[in-house]
Specification:
- It is a single chain.
- By secondary structure, this protein is mainly α.
- Helix content is 84%, strand content 0%.
- Helix 1 packs parallel to helix 3.
- The longest helix is centred in the middle third of the chain and has 36 residues.
- The radius of gyration is 18 Å and the shape is elongated.
- The two termini are 20 Å apart.
């Protein structure tokens, strides 16, 4: 599920669930705000990866690129796992 799809799904699920407390909603809002921030940072990192790829294709050297790319992939997977946990929790609560 894409981040945009997740956010749409979460928003609609929250609108339908009238039994949730304000604290639960606030906690999820904080989590979603953090995920938006991380998504923005991952976008910036992706832009940097494109710049590195351009430099490498021009013959430049990037000795730490593989490690940085591995870190970026781990971060992206962590964000995906967090989004999946929230989605799964909401689906369990709705059931």
């Amino acid at each position: 599920m894409s981040v945009a799809g997740f956010l749409a799904h979460s928003g609609l699920a929250a609108a339908r669930d009238q039994s949730r407390t304000a604290a639960a909603i606030a906690t999820e809002r904080d989590i979603l705000t953090a995920l938006f921030g991380v998504r923005r940072q991952l976008g910036w990192a992706g832009s940097n990866v494109n710049q590195v790829a351009k430099a490498l294709n021009s013959g430049a050297d990037a000795p730490h690129f593989a490690a940085a790319l591995a870190d970026l992939q781990r971060a992206a997977h962590a964000v995906q796992r967090a989004a999946d946990r929230i989605t799964n929790r909401q689906e369990e609560q709705a059931a």
